[in-house]
Each structure stands twice: as C-alpha cells, then as structure tokens.
Write a structure and sequence with these properties.
By secondary structure, the chain is mainly alpha-helical. Helices cover 63% and strands 2% of the residues. The chain has one domain. Helix 2 packs antiparallel against helix 3, helix 2 packs antiparallel against helix 6 and helix 4 packs antiparallel against helix 6. The relative contact order is 0.16.
C-alpha cells in the first residue's frame, strides 16, 4: 500500500511541475495522429494499405522514446536528453519522407510498389478462379478521401514536419539552456523559466 501511495504522490508531483512545452506538444500531436490512424481502420473503406503501415513505424519508434524523455526529463543528463530528442526528431524527418512518398504515389507523381499499385491491370480473368490471386489488397495509389485536395498521407507529412520542427526547436532550447547554466548564468531550478518552453 505504501508503494502505491508513493507512486501516486510521484505522479501528482510530476503533473505539478513545469513541463517542456515544445516536446510535450510534439508528443501530443504525434499521439493524436497515430491514434487517429489506428482508429480509422474500423471505418469501412479506410483500411490501411502497405504504405500506410510503413508510415506508422516512426510513431511506434519515436513516441515511446519521447514519452521516456518527458517522464524522466529531470533525471536524464542534459546531453543524453538532447540526444534522444534529436533521435526522435530525425525519426519524424523519416516520417516526412515516407508520407511524402505515399502522397506522391496517390497523386501519380511517381510510381509506387508493384504489390499495391495498378491493381486493376495486374488481375486477369484467369485469376478469378484462384482465391489466392484475388485476395484483397488495399491499393496504395488511391486516396480514401481528401480535404482541400490533401490526402491522409499529405496531412501526415505536414504533421510530421510540425512534430520534427518542435523537437529540433526543443533540442536547441535545451542546448542553449545548458550553455547558459555552464557559463554561470542565473539558474531557476531544475527546469527554470526558459526550460518550460523546451
């Protein structure tokens, strides 16, 4: 029981303290994006294609790392914290590339994987007697819907760019803060007034 009380007190203390807003906003945006993608699977006609699944990997990798950085922000050495923040930022740069590639396939700017594009041309009447040949494949070159002409992949590219930008900005703020402290600047505690925006 005492351990449970100690854990609850630790959680309350964590929520009470100032948070690194840039990294926190990036985490919330990424969490909303991946939960939206996972939830959309249950909407008829919104099943993910092969390229959609590829785009989820940066979130699967980056979100847990960023969550650990946020939870242990005070305990992690500054140089390690900056390094992990940059690792997640680069992960979302990769996400920008994956999402942009998929958007280009949807807009027919460049060809996509043969396994999920031009499906109408790949099946013949002879294939209709073969259940394995007609196994449902979600096309990568057809956007389920667009908003203002932007597909889900396009929105993912934009969201990933915002997330990556916030994380690079956070890393810069952490580095500037560490230089100020090492140079004998005025300290305002473990987080300080400037670290609240990191």
């Amino acid at each position: 029981m005492s351990k449970l009380v100690a854990f609850v007190n630790w959680c309350l203390e964590w929520f009470r303290r100032p948070l690194p807003l840039r990294a926190l906003v990036a985490f919330v945006l990424a969490l909303i994006a991946i939960l939206g993608a996972l939830g959309s699977e249950h909407i008829p006609g919104m099943e993910p294609c092969e390229l959609c699944l590829w785009q989820r990997w940066p979130y699967y990798i980056g979100l847990p790392i960023l969550a650990l950085v946020l939870v242990f922000w005070k305990q992690i050495p500054v140089i390690l914290r900056i390094g992990l923040t940059l690792v997640v930022a680069v992960t979302f740069v990769v996400s920008i590339g994956l999402a942009s590639y998929h958007a280009g396939v949807e807009y027919r700017i460049w060809p996509g994987p043969s396994s999920c594009t031009n499906l109408d041309e790949q099946l013949s009447f002879a294939d209709l007697d073969n259940p394995q040949a007609v196994e449902r494949v979600i096309p990568c070159d057809v956007a389920p819907f667009t908003i203002f002409g932007i597909s889900m992949a396009g929105f993912n590219a934009l969201a990933s760019a915002v997330i990556a930008g916030l994380l690079f900005w956070s890393a810069l703020g952490q580095w500037q803060r560490s230089r100020t402290k090492s140079g004998g600047g005025r300290s305002n505690g473990a987080y300080g007034s400037s670290s609240v925006s990191q």
